Amino acid sequence: MRGSLFYQTSSLWRRQRAKPHCRILSSASFSTADHEEGDGFLSNPSKVKIFDRHLKRKQRDRAAWLLRPNDSFVHAVAENLVDRLEDCRKTFPTALCLGGSLQAVRPLLRGRGAIEKVIMMDTSYDMLKACRSSHPDSSDENIETSYVVGDEEFLPIKESSVDLIVSCLGLHWTNDLPGAMIQCKLALKPDGLFLAAILGGETLKELRIACTVAQMEREGGISPRVSPLAQVRDAGNLLTRAGFALPGVDVDEYVVRYKSALDLIEHLRAMGETNALLQRSNILKRETAVATAAIYDSMFAAEDGTIPATFQVIYMTGWREHPSQQKAKRRGSATISFNDIQKQLGNGT
Predict the structure, then answer these.
(1) What SS3 state is found at 198?
(2) pLDDT in tens, 40-68
(3) What's the rounded Cα separation, in Å, for the pair 286 and 290?
(4) How far, in whole angstroms, is CA 283 from its chain's centroid?
(5) Which residues of 326-345 are buried (b: 16+ CB within 10 A; e: fewer)?
(6) The pTM is what?
């Protein structure tokens, strides 16, 4: 990653290769969400409007041209997410990858989960083209790959049609995150697996502080410059609300170091992670931007002159319900009390 220092533990995987079958399709007429006739991709079923989805699509179009082939942070998140397939004995013949870091996820699926078919979906046509052309050496990959232009808020996938859904750094830009996750659950076959990584509320805390101080000093008030993100405590509730069985949540924090605040902004643009709030201020005064960079440097710079940026990543795991899955015992069905256990342990000491 240019202008940054980053390290993270990684795992090794076995690559399997064979001939691919690739094509790019538009959104189909079927969906897991109810909708009116017309262009479902352009119509947003969400009642809550926080993000400008059209702007986000344009940002991802731009990011397709700015993508960094060896982005250590993005690769580490994708590897950590997909590595969870190593813990599953079940196979996943058909997988769906939603938005976010498609280029990082695609090569990591090889040799994992016995995947035979992958559907790569993104709101940006340019991003899909970049993903397709980023692995020209994988002509012998033994996975059939399809590319679909679609929206996570209006999932163009038939109900109970895929075995695995992977979303790496994409779902946190949806206006209705619970609704998008419900659609993901409906798209899964029984006993299908949902894997997602989203940015958490502690992400870019240094930039938030610097922006707030600079705006108060230069403009006498603040306007949102960094998008609101989900908190860790909400992740488990999101999985339960969406109806996933055996929900699991864990959190990692990645600290990436940059030469300057400008390098950080360039990296955010390359990831498509710049501000897309509907209530954003369209104009950032030059003096405010300069003050933000200066405050960032004065408050957080290390001895070597680099500045840190914290990325909090929330990993979510959930399964579509199936009779074979583990279930909690009925309340009150225990045959031994904790008091008896405590007495036995007390006698043993």
Answers:
(1) strand
(2) 444 444 467 888 899 999 999 999 999 88
(3) 6
(4) 28
(5) eeeeeeeeeeeeeeeeeeee
(6) 0.80
